[in-house]
Amino acid sequence: GASPPGSEAGAPLARALLPLLAPPKKKRKGGRGRASPAAEVAAAALAAVLVRAAEGSSTAATPPRRLPMRDVAAIASALSLPLAACPAPPAGDPTRSALLSCWEALAEGHAPPLLPVCRLLRDLDAASVTEVGSPDYDRRLDAYAKLREPGDWRVVATAAAGAAGEEVEDESSSSVVAAAAVAALARRALSDLSDRGDLALRHAAAGAVTALVIASAQAKKKQKQQKKSCSEADAALTSAADRVVFAAARARAAIFDV
Question: pLDDT, tens digit, for every residue of 185-210?
């Protein structure tokens, strides 16, 4: 349906901030997976824009003012890329925290079906409350346990594919959102898989990546058997496997030396 008045107010500013979130082409000195200072500022600004754009949507008297799905798709895709930092930045990294706040603001205000993905991303980056710069292993391993089976990935992809809600005329953008959500989790797992110093997380990440690859293979097999176009969830799974996992394997085969 038509977007409520004012729902696109934050879209131009949000789109202007997206290029600043892109991961650096060259590795920065002295930083393990650290982004540029500009990325931290841009992520914090984007989170504020997303919250502001959705203001008023939490009251019954005011209809939701959500961004158009095409903008949600562009933002989700841009937010997925920085999660590929290999190895991952230290626990509590401010830029990573700001990026996760963007995911949460995007989901809460504009695409509620993405909330399960946001919770997983936040748990996969959980920091210890007792040791500065250390991971919260319980939360991180629990999150990976929720991605251990191919069916777990299908559940996530199916939920993310519902992000368009009633905007059924914008199915292409909905597919992009679902693919970006699954890709974000895949990139996060590959980030941990590249960390040779943390065997527990590396093993858990390897299990999650393996499950995604199997889920993708199952989706392709089903599509071939049924001889029809695949669902948005299946497309998201195959896209993440092909464009994230297999691309990383070709570029950096060493990360699979587990």
Answer: 999 999 998 887 789 999 999 999 99
